[in-house]
Amino acid sequence: MPLPLALTMGDPAGIGGELTLRAWSMLRASGPAFAALDNPARLAALAGLLGLDVPLRRIDAPEEATACFADCLPVLFIPLAAPARPGHPDPANGPAVTASIELAARLAMERQVAGVVTNPISKITLYQSGFAYPGHTEFLGALTGAASPPVMMLVSPELRVVPVSVHVALRRALDLLDAGLIVAIARTAARALREDFDIERPRLAVAGLNPHAGEGGALGTEEETIIGPAIAALIDEGIAASGPWSPDTLFTQAARAGYDAAICMYHDQALIPLKTLDMANGVNVTLGLPIVRTSPDHGTAFDIAGLGRADPSSLIAALRLAAEIAARRAARPHVGARGGA
């Protein structure tokens, strides 16, 4: 019997609880099975508020989740310090949010669950509670002892993108850009595409930074001094990398047919096209961890929390993709053992 996934709480004032309830309702017959690392009382109250018929069962170990999943939503108990109020984040519950992530990571490292799927968190609320990491990605890297900094890939049926810089200000992102960083991130992406997505020879399209990819230096020189040398180094390693491509044409339908993932120079250059093309089915995948981790491609949506309007599509896609990657890794026992994707 396959191991279940661990689904974290996310911010209890956001839409994560509703997504969890709706995902169970839609996946109970087909799977993949998951255990919610959450507070049963808050989920029961939320189900009542939304009029959702979701029977809950508090479990003591993840192994119980698969057997009961068709009949009830299995929940591993996480205590809350304050009542959860939809749309009203409370830093007092920050420790519960991080405890859920910590438990999920430990269970995955101990091979008690097949992988981790994380519900959306509010970074500002966590910062107010003393959280010391920029976000999930960096926190999970520390919890799992990843050998190198983890890498974020956004995946949808239409497009895969990997940003070189993630949760930093744009001005800081430009300062951080260098050839070695591009090479390291592209290398991790290529390995993950081979091992986790079964693409034998992945093709990476590397975006330029400036309009028209610098127009031969007239609109910026980073393509010639940083990005071009990185692409050359990747090609020397045997990675099928091309570019730098003009960012304004890289994401057209015709262009997307020519690559398996786009390496983008900063956060929004990657996420805007993916979310524009397919927000509902986008999934965030963390590469470079010794465990499987995915998440929805959206945030906490405090403005609609508790109103019954949250769309579970991205969470369901994240659960399914986590199960698929876990199955591929199980077929190749060496994958993940070294702390790489």
Kindly provide the radius of gyration, computed on alpha-carbon positions and rounded to a whole number of angstroms.
20 Å
Estimate the helix proportion, in percent: 25-40%
Strand order across the largest sheet: 3-4-2-1-5-12-11-6-7-10-8-9
User: Main beta sheet: strand number and arrangement?
Assistant: 12 strands, mixed
Look at the structure and give the CATH class of the largest domain.
Answer: Alpha Beta
Structural class: alpha/beta
N- to C-terminal separation? 24 Å
Give the full name of the CATH homologous superfamily of the largest domain.
Isopropylmalate Dehydrogenase
**What is the total domain count?**
2
Number of helices: 12
Residue stretches low in confidence (pLDDT < 50, at least 5 long) are 337-341
Globally, the shape reads: globular
Counted beta strands: 12
Based on the structure given, which CATH architecture of the largest domain is correct? 3-Layer(aba) Sandwich
What is the H/E string? Answer: EHEHEHEHEHHEEHHEHEHEHEEH
Mean pLDDT: 94
What name does CATH use for the topology of the largest domain?
Isopropylmalate Dehydrogenase
Instruction: Indicate the proportion of strand residues.
Output: 15-25%
In brief:
This protein has twelve helices and twelve strands. It is of the alpha/beta class and 341 residues long. It has two domains: 200 residues, Isopropylmalate Dehydrogenase (3-Layer(aba) Sandwich); 123 residues, Isopropylmalate Dehydrogenase, CATH 3.40.718.
